[in-house]
Write a structure and sequence with these properties.
Layout (H helix, E strand, L loop, with lengths): L9 H26 L7 H17 L25 E3 L9 E2 L2 H11 L5 E7 L2 E8 L2 E7 L5 E3 L2 H5 L14 E8 L2 H10 L7 H9 L4 H4 L5 E8 L10 H10 L9 E3 L1 H15 L6 E8 L2 H7 L9 E4 L5 E13 L5 E12 L2 E7 L3 H7 L6 E5 L7 E7 L20 E2 L6 E2 L6 H12 L11 H9 L6 H4 L6 H5 L6 H14 L4 H7 L7 H9 L5 H8 L4 H6 L6 H11 L2 H12 L21 E5 L9 H9 L3 E2 L9 E4 L5 H9 L2 E4 H10 L5
Parallel strand pairs: 2-11, 19-20, 19-21, 21-22
Antiparallel strand pairs: 1-6, 3-9, 3-10, 4-5, 4-7, 7-8, 10-11, 12-13, 12-15, 13-14, 15-16, 17-18
Helix pairs in contact: 1-2, 3-9, 17-18, 19-21
The structure holds zinc ion (ZN).
The site of zinc ion has 9 residues, from loops.
Length: about 675
């Protein structure tokens, strides 16, 4: 049994947190200095912080990070993408899969039919092992291969919910899965122009990112499971006790784990299968484990996987098919995505005819080409992917064209991206996708204008860009005579377009599809007092633009550059000017203030999704109308967090900071009590 000595003092806690915050500060400044070439403080100021941390490290060597920025020369920063290798102290195995309850029941009957088994969610993220010594997180290591992983401790330490120090001074190794909630992923990905394919890819990329300061901005979460006790596990004789124990130590544990016997296992699985789709995080199945740890030891493991556990996949998530054609798609941002047309197959309840191949690197890795026999997977996200080549085709490995198939511009890699881009802003395919994006449900949500209609109007040359939509009325007569377009449907489209003029800056600006200017950044700008497009343009074109943008909380250096560049761009300015003339609303609508102000002096933040408040800003409007303040991110100044289904990192952070947490139900009660109508 690990000794339950609680020797921690408040003082060490304080020093620990001061050192972590100094580390972060130094890293951020190193980043600005060496990589952005734009220092934010003088060398003298920097040196002061640096020396302060160094002194603390000398005085408290136990609390010093192994990869402290004091041990790095700043100019080495750009070369630290190779992580130190770490040989695991425990076997880090993967699980053998079962695809239906029969396979699972067979396994249990062969293994130990009388036993208790735990059933846990199998989270679809990136596997990690946390090594705690004397209660302090010493190493966080990826699974890697052959028993050796990458030491990504500094990156993992940025995850809010991971304790750097446990509640007890114990030696403990624990496995975990780093992941991203769907809502966090969508929000984050939106601000990056939809660059990432799914939460798993973004998570895996994030934990191996070069700069911890960048990782810190990403909404990563973790659940831990399987604990190993190098000093012996004492009274912890079951998985159930082990999970309870690590939870008590402050480690996050996934919800819904149940303990059951063979006769009830199918029922439990059915229950979880029904629940799966409403969970906020990506799940790729269940894990069924023998609960008795001693029996686990007795069973041991094969070279690849433990004999005491199985993964359970809900549906057959893989199918075989043949690649018939590979088509390079050009998106709104110019990004090229090779898409494979495959021989149609049934997968997880739908007919799949296309699967993504991500980029040329991915194609090369797989060695995939036309005619290849492949396995297709669908893992949580909507777009299926080609996973593996079963038999190569006769045409060799596919090569993306060197020129854009739509405008012949030479395709090139932008920044450090693995993707190719068509950089021609006037590329017809990019224009078409920009139009589709603008009208989307998540953006301007224009009634009657779907992909089919837009494609048709585009091919007729009626609309080339967003502004043209608002002049579509001149084709009204011609439209009415077209097949499939009656008077009625034309009226709906024109009315939808007209109505959309009323939508305010909050919807209009992100819908323009500018790089890095999504809903979140727009909201941050509005909150900072830039409530209309003129104010934003003035800011971006002012002498101190960079300084002022950087000073806004929630806007990073990359967003700053993107805002300045784009709002100085002639094309963008021309489009905005035209849209203004056409009567679009580039002003953030202020909500009328009420005299009844029960939320006076409070700062509210909102996260997750709600039943009564869609979009969730409706709830925030009520708060601001009645005296409260709305903020887009959690800080020590936030007083309340209204959270709904799918709440992610904001909820974690709010818990950490002791901010008052309010559910939708509780919020409705407050409104009722204050006689505030919905
Ligand atoms: Zn092009």
């Amino acid at each position: 049994m690990p000794t339950p000595s609680k020797k921690k003092t408040n003082n060490t806690d304080k020093i620990d947190s001061e050192m972590r915050s100094l580390e972060k500060e130094i890293r951020d400044h190193q980043y600005f200095y060496y990589l952005e070439n734009s220092p934010r403080i003088t060398d003298k100021e920097f040196d002061k912080i640096f020396q302060k941390l160094k002194k603390l490290e000398e005085k408290y060597p136990d609390l010093a990070s192994p990869n402290s920025p004091t041990k790095l020369v700043g100019s080495d920063l750009s070369e630290t993408s190779d992580f130190a290798k770490f040989k695991h102290k425990i076997p880090v195995l993967s699980l053998e899969n079962t695809y239906n309850t029969k396979e699972l029941v067979d396994w249990i009957q062969k293994t130990a039919p009388e036993d208790i088994y735990s059933i846990e969610w199998k989270i679809d993220g990136a596997s990690i092992v946390l090594y705690y010594e004397d209660g302090i997180l010493k190493n966080a290591v990826t699974r890697g291969s052959g028993g050796t992983g990458d030491d990504v401790t500094e990156n993992i330490k940025t995850i809010q919910s991971i304790p750097h120090r446990l509640e007890e001074k114990v030696n403990l190794y624990v496995r975990g899965e780093v992941f991203m909630n769907f809502s966090d992923f969508e929000e984050f990905n939106e601000d990056f122009g939809g660059k990432y394919a799914n939460p798993r890819n973004l998570t895996a990329g994030s934990i191996k990112h070069k700069y911890a300061s960048e990782v810190a901005k990403r909404p990563l979460c973790i659940f831990t499971y399987d604990a190993f006790f190098p000093d012996g596990r004492g009274k912890i004789i079951t998985n159930k006790l082990s999970l309870e124990y690590i939870k008590k130590l402050g480690l996050p544990v996934a919800p819904d784990t149940s303990f059951t016997t063979l006769d009830k296992i199918e029922k439990t699985i059915e229950k979880l299968r029904k629940k799966k789709d409403s969970m906020p995080f990506p799940i790729d199945g269940l894990v069924i484990k023998m609960d008795d740890l001693k029996k686990r030891d007795a069973l041991g493991e094969t070279a690849h996987s433990p004999r005491w556990a199985r993964a359970f996949k809900f549906d057959a998530l893989f199918q075989e098919s043949t690649i018939e054609e590979i088509i390079p798609q050009i998106g709104r941002t110019g990004k090229v995505t090779p898409r494979a047309r495959i021989k149609p197959v049934q997968l997880a309840g739908t007919t799949v005819t296309y699967a993504t191949l991500h980029n040329q690197d991915y194609i090369n890795q797989l060695g995939v080409g036309i005619g290849a026999r492949v396995s297709i997977s669908k893992r949580g996200e909507i777009i299926p992917a080609v996973e593996e080549v079963l038999e190569p085709g006769l045409h060799g490995v596919f090569q993306l064209p060197t020129k854009c198939p739509f405008c012949s511009t030479k395709l090139e890699k932008v920044d450090e991206s693995v993707d190719l881009f068509c950089t021609n802003k006037k590329c017809p395919e990019r224009e078409r996708h920009s139009l589709l994006f603008f009208c989307q449900k998540k953006q301007m949500d224009i009634d009657g204008l779907g992909e089919k209609q837009i494609n048709l109007f585009y091919s007729k040359g009626w609309v080339k860009n967003i502004a043209d939509l608002y002049e579509l009325k001149k084709y009204e007569d011609e439209m009415e005579t077209m097949e499939g377009f009656g008077k009625k449907s034309v009226a709906i489209i024109l009315k939808g377009i007209e109505e959309s003029k009323k939508k305010d800056l909050r919807l209009l600006l992100p819908a323009l599809g500018l790089n890095e200017v999504g809903h979140k950044v727009t909201e941050v700008l509005i909150e900072a007092g830039y409530e209309n497009i003129d104010a934003i343009l003035e800011l971006a074109n002012s002498k101190n633009a960079e300084e002022e943008l950087n000073a806004i909380h929630g806007i990073g250096p990359r967003t700053t550059v993107a805002i300045i560049e784009q709002f100085q761009d002639k094309e963008v300015l021309g489009l905005i000017k035209r849209l203004k003339k056409l009567g679009l609303n580039f002003q953030a609508n202020a909500s009328e203030k009420s005299d009844h102000t029960p939320f006076d002096g409070q700062s509210w933040c909102v996260t997750g999704s709600f039943e009564k408040f869609q979009p969730r800003d409706r709830a925030m409007d009520i708060i601001t109308r009645h005296g409260g303040r709305k903020v887009s991110s959690i800080s020590s100044k936030t007083t309340h967090l209204l959270y709904g289904e799918g709440a992610g990192s904001k909820l974690e952070k709010a818990k950490d900071l002791g901010i008052e947490l309010v559910t939708e139900e509780e919020f409705l009660k407050i409104l009722q009590r204050e006689s505030i109508p919905l």
